[in-house]
Amino acid sequence: MSKEALIKQLEGLSEEEMSEVLKFVRLLQEEAEELSDEELQEVRAGQEEFRRGEWTRWEDVKRDV
């Protein structure tokens, strides 16, 4: 996506939506945090669960809450 296309999309957003976009851009610009060994193990365990098909669609989670 070009900058021009992005700017065109941004122009149609409300002030509230623009505020959320700005928060996201700032998040993208932050330095990545290093994961602890425990966090890495949790990520790997989650990836294995996903490979085994042990996951739930977000729509289903929202509906069941």
Please outline the major beta sheet.
none
Structural class: mainly alpha
Low-confidence stretches: none
Cα separation of the termini: 36 Å
Q: Helical content, roughly?
A: over 70%
Radius of gyration: 18 Å
**What are the secondary-structure elements, in order, as H or E?**
HHHH
SS element count, helices:
4
- The count of DSSP E runs of length 2 or more, i.e. the number of strands, is 0
Q: What percent of residues are in strands? A: under 5%
Tally of structural domains: 1
Could you explain how this protein is built, in words?
The chain has helices at residues 3-11, 15-29, 37-51, 58-64. The model has no long low-confidence stretch (mean pLDDT 93). 71% of the residues lie in helices and 0% in strands. The radius of gyration is 18 Å and the shape is extended. The longest helix has 15 residues, at 15-29.
Characteristic terms for this protein:
65 residues; mainly alpha
Structure in a nutshell:
By secondary structure, the protein is mainly alpha-helical. The chain has helices spanning 3-11, 15-29, 37-51, 58-64.
Helix-strand blueprint:
Blueprint (H helix, E strand, L loop, with lengths): L2 H9 L3 H15 L7 H15 L6 H7 L1
